[in-house]
């Protein structure tokens, strides 16, 4: 119970900091909007018909998500690394794995917000209807964003302490996300083109498997990253 | 360990060079042209060996990373770094030789089939690892690289599984290779000789790179 309350306290700390500074929220919303508009202009200029746009929509949706979240979450450890705050947490007896879990949860919320903005913007600009599939899109998005958050929390920390942190993060993170990207695309095609999302689909199992692997690895390896092991 | 190479290492290197020369003789002078693809098929002997050696490099990277994290043994870190560098070179050879072969034989530079996509992603992961080593803060480079190495190595089977789930993924490799008549024992034996030579060459390159790493740290006298 103490472990859970510690993790939740850290989540509350991150979210409160985010609400006060509004840095991450502002940038993820703005970047999602801008990128969605740019992609929509490109698609519109190709004069594709409605069916082709519907086929392209999942790719656009996830490209915007992965790019904007990678850029914005690259700053997620800045406040913790400043003045060695992470060392303070360790000295205060906070388990390193609780730090990791709290970061996964808080980054999940910020990424989800950006994803909602980009999906709605793209749907409006490209005239794609979401009403029939909104529940399935939300469920699918939760799975994908959780896998993304679990992996990004490790890779963002690795890149934060390197000399070219903002440049290195996409190089490290994006190749590792490819299986997640495949699953996101295939499930999104099934949702948008056939209005189907089967829980017995191997892609759903793959996504859940990826989350389990990344979270278990993250919990076990994060203490080494912050130097508490 | 001494700075100078031991006589055993020099002898092994000379023996390996002679073996590789023999493999080249087999490939270019003994094995006949494949009946459909012709001479371009000979690239296969270097391509398959390089692919096998790349997978061995990734396994060494994983092992070195795990040992380093558990024991902080610098030799293990240098070994992991060496394996990643050699693995990157080998995976580049696999991609380039595969593209040359694919274009010559089937008029396609790249096909979205499982093995090609897996290798492309493996190449990207090894590239990321090597770039991280160059730009990391010296104190933390070893630990951060070890974590990335573990994630990269564990991601490989996930990638392989996910690609196999993709619909309409044609298997370019085994079907075409079987149909083109590579069941001849001479082809198969040459392939295994070349594969063994490249894998041993890979170990030698990792050893040399490891010694360079030790020299940079001042551990060899």
Write the layout of secondary structure elements.
The complex is a heterodimer of chains A (229) and B (221).
Chain A: H1 2-21, H2 23-45, H3 50-73, H4 78-81, H5 85-91, H6 96-125, H7 134-160, H8 165-176, H9 178-194, H10 202-226
Chain B: H1 7-30, H2 44-71, H3 74-106, H4 114-135, H5 138-165, H6 172-179, H7 185-217
Helix pairs in contact in B: 1-7, 2-3, 2-5, 2-7, 3-4, 3-5, 3-7, 4-5
Helix and strand element order of chain A: HHHHHHHHHH
Derived from helix and strand composition plus strand pairing, the structural class of chain A reads mainly alpha
* End-to-end Cα distance of chain B: 7 Å
Q: How much beta of chain A, percentage-wise? A: under 5%
Please tally the helical runs of chain B, counting DSSP H or I stretches of 4 or more residues: 7
The gyration radius over C-alpha positions of chain B equals: 19 Å
Q: Outline the low-pLDDT stretches of chain B.
A: 174-178
How many strand segments of chain B?
0
**Number of helical runs of chain A?**
10
Number of DSSP E strands of chain A: 0
Helix fraction of chain B, binned, reads: over 70%
Instruction: Sum up the overall morphology of chain A in one term.
Output: globular
Low-confidence region ranges of chain A:
none
Structural class, judged by helices and strands of chain B? mainly alpha
Residue fraction in strands of chain B: under 5%
Fraction of helical residues of chain A = over 70%
């Amino acid at each position: 119970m103490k472990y859970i309350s510690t993790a939740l306290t850290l989540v509350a700390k991150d979210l409160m900091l985010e609400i006060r500074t509004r840095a991450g929220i502002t940038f993820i919303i703005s970047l999602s909007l801008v990128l969605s508009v740019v992609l929509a202009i490109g698609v519109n200029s190709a004069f594709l018909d409605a069916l082709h746009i519907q086929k392209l929509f999942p790719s656009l949706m996830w490209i915007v998500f992965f790019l904007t979240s990678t850029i914005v979450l690259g700053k997620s450890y800045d406040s913790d690394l400043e003045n060695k705050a992470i060392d303070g947490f360790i000295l205060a007896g906070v388990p390193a794995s609780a730090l990791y879990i709290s970061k996964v949860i808080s980054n999940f919320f910020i990424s989800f917000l950006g994803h909602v903005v980009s999906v709605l913007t793209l749907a409006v600009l490209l005239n794609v209807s979401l009403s029939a599939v909104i529940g399935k899109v939300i469920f699918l998005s939760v799975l994908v964003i959780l896998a993304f958050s679990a992996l990004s929390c490790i890779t963002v920390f690795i890149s934060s302490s390197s000399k070219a942190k903002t440049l290195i993060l996409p190089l490290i993170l994006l190749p590792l996300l490819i299986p997640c990207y495949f699953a996101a695309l295939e499930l999104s095609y099934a949702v948008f083109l056939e209005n189907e999302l089967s829980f017995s689909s191997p892609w759903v199992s793959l996504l859940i498997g990826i989350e389990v692997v990344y979270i278990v690895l993250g919990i076990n390896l994060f203490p080494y990253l912050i130097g508490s092991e | 360990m001494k700075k100078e190479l031991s006589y055993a290492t020099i002898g092994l290197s000379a023996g390996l060079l002679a073996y590789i020369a023999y493999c080249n003789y087999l490939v270019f002078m003994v094995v006949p042209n494949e009946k459909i693809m012709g001479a371009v098929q000979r690239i296969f002997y270097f391509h398959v060996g390089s692919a096998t050696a790349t997978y061995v490099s990734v396994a060494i990277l994983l092992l070195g990373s795990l040992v380093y994290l558990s024991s902080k043994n610098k030799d293990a870190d240098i070994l992991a770094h060496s394996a990643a560098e050699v693995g990157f070179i080998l995976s580049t050879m696999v991609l380039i030789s595969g593209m040359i072969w694919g274009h010559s034989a089937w008029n396609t530079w790249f096909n979205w089939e499982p093995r090609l996509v897996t290798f492309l992603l493996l190449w990207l992961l090894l590239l990321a690892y090597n770039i991280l080593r160059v730009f990391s803060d010296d104190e933390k480079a070893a630990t951060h690289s070890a974590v990335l190495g573990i994630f990269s190595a564990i991601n490989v089977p996930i990638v392989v599984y996910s690609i196999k789930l993709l619909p309409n993924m044609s298997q370019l490799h085994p079907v075409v290779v079987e149909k083109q008549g590579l069941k001849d024992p001479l082809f198969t034996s040459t392939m295994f000789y070349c594969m063994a030579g490249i894998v041993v060459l890979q170990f030698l390159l990792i050893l040399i790179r490891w010694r360079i790493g030790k020299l940079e740290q001042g551990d060899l006298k």
